[in-house]
Amino acid sequence: MGILRAFFVVHLPGREQAHLSISLNDAEQLAVARRRKKLSQGQLAELIGSYQTRISRLENSRNKPTAEEQILIEKVLETSIWSTAGS
What is the count of structural domains for the chain? Predict the structure, then answer.
């Protein structure tokens, strides 16, 4: 739940190391996970029994997913977005 943070160290020849931090909220994590599975919003919606516009609204933070949607989406995308490790 919340924000996913990723830290990177960038090595550039002849320069000092650059540290980069990227934070993704739940909606952004959903979009990234869907794209990694090479699914369109419509395809994901069909797999969870929903509509493309619903997925769009979730990915744009216009709506929050129901508990049931969270479970179905995480199962289809084979990842944890809202659930925490060990739960």
Answer: 1
